[in-house]
Structures are given as C-alpha cells and as structure tokens.
Design brief:
The protein is of the alpha/beta class. It has eleven helices and nine strands. Bound molecules: phosphoric acid mono(formamide)ester.
Length: 301
C-alpha cells in the first residue's frame, strides 16, 4: 500500500518513474484502459475544486476503474452531523481500494493515513501541501524544457497561503542547480521554513520587489491567485499582474504556468501567447494522476 500525502516522501527516482509512466500513458492510453478494472476509488472533497477532482475522476475511469465520490463532504457527508475525519476514513476505507481526499486542514492527510486500510492520496491539504499538483507542474516543466535540473523558477502571488507553491519549491529542490525567485506583496511572502528548506538543498532563493528583479531569461514564471478563503479576506487588487506587456519583458523561451483557477493576476490578453501554458498544464493533470493512481495501487509494471 502506497500513500501519497507529502512531497517530503518523494525522491528523484520515484518522480522519474511517475514521469516515465505518464509519458507511456500519453503515448498509448489504450494500453492502460483496463489497468484498474475491478478497482474502486473514493474521491472525497471537503473544499471546492474543478481540476483536481474532475481530473482524478477522469483518470480513474480512463484506467477502467470506478468511483464513489462526494464533491462537498463538509455539507453532504456525516461530517455535517459531527462525525470525525478519523471515523469517516475508517468507514470509507472499507468501501474502496484507495481514497483521494481534499481537506481544509493542514494535517488532514496524516490523520487519514493513521486510520486508513487503503492508500490515501492528498488532493490538497489546507495551506500546506498539494503534491499531485506539483507532480503535474514538474511534469509540465520537464515536458516543455526537456529537463528539471538547471531551471530558474519565479514563483509569484500568494507565497504564504499557496499550497501549490509550498509543494513545488519542495519538489524542485530535489533537482540540481535550481534558482528560485519570489515576487509577492510583503504580507504574502514565502514562509521562512521553505526558504530554509531550499537553502538546505543548495537552492538559491531571491526575494524580488518587482518584475524587473526577475531575470528576463527565467525558465518558468509560476503565478498564483491570492487564497482569500484561507484568511477570511475579501477580494483585493493584485499588485503583480502578468499581461502581454509584462510577459514581453521575458524571453521567448520563458513559460508561464499557473495551477488555476486564476483571478486577475494573469490577464486574458496573454492566453494566445505560445508561452502561456496553464491550460496545457491543467490537462496534464489527467495522465499524471493516472500514473499516480497506478503507483499507489501497485499497478506499475
Ligand atoms: N489547481 C487546483 O487545485 O485546482 P482546483 O482547485 O480546481 O482543483
């Protein structure tokens, strides 16, 4: 049984195994269309989602498996009647072969693993981690750049609450000669523990004050929306908006990623630019999550 709950458990070798399997799935999806026949996956989401939930549901069904799901477990599972997460997981793990879970609490996956008799896949836990998103982010970088080593990555937006940022900087730190640049409002700066983690892995981190502080030949611009739901804030004006004029300050080789959903931090006037790859990135979620499911269910050949 293999859980995927944190980027901390990943090694370069097992990322490479997932990426190679993803490549094979993309090349020959038919070969994998019956890999999960007879397997049932529970998809439980306590927070809203478009991409993660639907791409996991798509991934299971493209592998021939079936799902039981609840898209709003907070309101429509017995959580609404006071059931603990532990009791819910103990029950659901008797109904299925794996559980894909999104939850608002940072330690939800660790709590689920302690009581589950089937693999737990973390589909987003509070502000802490979103490992399957980071796997598809790295896969997209590898696909577009042909490498993950020697990458200059700029992370933008909400570096404080953005779980996709936290997982991405942890995962990319497994690679060699990585430079990370952070551009955010001061109140959304990257927590020191991630800066210390990168330092421990010889990753350089530079705090930027404006777009001009990011090298124009940066390989990846990775923007994120402000996570207003994490601090009860309203909607505020974004300070660092990437529009056509800003994107044109960067190299023709720079790619623009975003985990989505976006708000105003990326203008729609860049959508037709070949460097704007966030929809392709979202679509990579299906084959990457197919590979993750095969790994967690011990179906990798
Ligand atoms: N990137 C991401 O997690 O999107 P959803 O919230 O729509 O799943």
């Amino acid at each position: 049984m293999k859980h995927l709950i944190s980027c901390e458990q990943c090694t370069r070798q097992n990322l490479e195994e997932i990426f190679e399997l993803t490549d094979k799935i993309v090349e020959n999806p038919k070969k994998y269309s019956e890999s999960l026949v007879g397997n049932l996956v529970s998809i439980i989401f306590y927070e809203p989602s478009t991409r993660t939930r639907l791409s996991f549901e798509s991934a299971v069904q493209r592998l021939g498996g079936t799902i039981v799901s609840t898209e709003n477990a907070k309101a429509y599972s017995s959580t609404a009647k006071g059931e603990t997460l532990e009791d819910t997981i103990k029950v659901i793990s008797g109904y299925c072969d794996a559980i894909v879970m999104r939850h608002n609490e940072d330690d939800s996956s660790e709590r689920a693993v302690k009581v589950s008799s089937v693999p737990i896949i973390n589909a987003g836990a509070g502000k802490k981690e979103h490992p399957t998103q980071s796997l598809l982010d790295l896969y997209t970088i590898r696909q577009q750049k042909g490498r993950i080593d020697n990458v200059k990555l700029a992370v933008l937006g909400d570096l404080l609450y953005g779980r996709t940022i936290h997982s991405l900087v942890e995962l990319i730190s497994l690679y060699d000669n990585i430079s990370v640049y952070g551009l955010s409002k001061k109140e959304f700066a990257l927590p020191q523990k991630y800066i210390d983690y990168m330092k421990s892995k010889n990753v350089s981190y530079t705090v930027c004050s404006n777009f001009d502080d990011i090298p124009s030949d940066v390989d990846v611009l990775y923007h994120t929306r402000t996570q207003y739901e994490r601090f009860g804030g309203g909607t505020g004006r974004e300070e660092f908006i990437i529009n056509k004029e800003v994107l044109d300050k960067f190299s023709k080789e720079t790619i623009l990623l975003h985990p989505l959903p976006r708000n105003e931090e990326i203008s729609t006037d860049v959508d037709d630019d070949p460097r704007a790859l966030f929809f392709k990135q979202a679509h990579n979620g299906v084959p990457v999550r197919m590979a993750i499911l095969l790994q967690c269910l011990d179906k990798m050949e």
